[in-house]
Design goal:
Strand content: under 5%
Distance between the termini: 74 Å
Structural class: mainly alpha
Radius of gyration: 23 Å
Number of domains: 1
Largest sheet: none
Number of strands: 0
Number of helices: 4
Order of helices and strands: HHHH
Length: 100
Amino acid sequence: MTRSTSKAQRLCAAALIAGASSLLLAEPALASANIEGLLQNVVDMLTGNTARLLAVLAVVVVGILWMFGLFDLRRAAIVVLGIIVVFGAAEIVNLITGGA
């Protein structure tokens, strides 16, 4: 009795092996050796240019949906408030902690 494997199963196995080997062979970056550097990279990613462009697109889409009556004003305000909190988080923390 022979066991036949489908093309999808072989592809899945190859992808799993490739993923596992890339995780095992990856070397840690020495530039982000401390936790502060890692967290700063996360903050930069969340407040960087790409995130700003996505926020602009979100406001545009929400505005268009609201204009056509597919989105109520309360939800639109919540989206805009969320964007304000994300991009103003550093200033909010500085106000609370008294940082410079």
